[in-house]
């Protein structure tokens, strides 16, 4: 009996090993990506369901909401409003006469797709929003493998996908937020950029820039890409047709970076409708003011220094040191393995965040477009390292959902 049991166990182990080898075969990369994605969604869905079960009454749901209702809270409710009613032509004001929070802060790409799915299937927004998000996040995972495999071996590229799928903020990939759609479009744009298919970038940039704020950051990345290709033109040919295409894509991305601002201005009659709406979200922290590039992080340091009761100079030193360390990291060997184009995007997006965004709990979500850095984290081959990293990612999911998504009475840490 013992020998039979051992033989059965050995046979099962051998079968599992053969199946795993078949799934991970380079020509079946898409099966491996789907398997990784599916496993990650089981983990994340379990965490979200657990938090939903202990969720109390909140501004969007009753206690213990179902999954789809729980996935529609926070900004998901704004996308719900936009999908059903569109944008206001008259800007709402507070009692003090300041511009109030309103739908113009949220771009139309994602709610338009959800509305299309709602019309096509007769599903309500909560269900359609999750379906759209999950579909785009799967597409992003598949594309991300293709991007990573341009610069990394197949196995390392697959582990980079695993980091992307299990990342601390990966819960955002299956709720009613625009991030999944945006990350799919961004990954496609990075793929075409790395393949030097500049004309293919134009439709992607157009939709991407109307899904999440990104046109200006991508224009900077494209501009730096053109400068780099011109600089190394003797070792890497940069023919005239590619110069024209790359410069055209750069100019188009720059134009699209201002498109939503202009649309909001024409619709409402206020040139600053979009920027003032964005500023309304930081008013509870620092009050109302003008948009001054790079000033928000200084204002944030002043606010958080008071909140944490620590010297302002210490927080400013930490901020400067963190920024410098980040940009130095982009020149280290692990980052250099990602190639020039991905690093130019990450650096450009970081500069964009420093220029226009206010640091608070939503900043964690705003860091997601830097996901190509998962490739650098995926380089070590140690199984212990990789297992611990994925465990840390899952723990990070729990921490982020608890901090930002789950609503605990008066919650000042929005996702």
Tell me about the biggest sheet? none
What is the end-to-end distance?
Answer: 56 Å
Shape: globular
Rg value? 23 Å
User: Which bin fits the share of residues in helices?
Assistant: 55-70%
Helix-strand category: mainly alpha
Percentage of residues in strands: under 5%
Helix run count? 20
In N-to-C order, the SSE pattern is HHHHHHHHHHHHHHHHHHHH
Low-pLDDT stretches are: none
Mean pLDDT: 93
Question: Would you report the number of β strands?
Answer: 0
Summarize the structure in words.
By secondary structure, the chain is mostly helical. The chain is 68% helix and 0% strand. The protein has helices at residues 2-23, 29-53, 67-70, 75-85, 109-121, 125-149, 154-166, 179-194, 198-208, 215-231, 240-257, 259-268, 273-286, 295-308, 312-329, 333-336, 340-356, 363-366, 374-377, 383-405. It starts with a helix and ends in a 10-residue tail after the last helix. The mean pLDDT is 93.
List descriptors.
globular, mainly alpha, 20 helices, 415 residues
Would you summarize the structure shown here?
With 415 residues, the chain is mainly α.
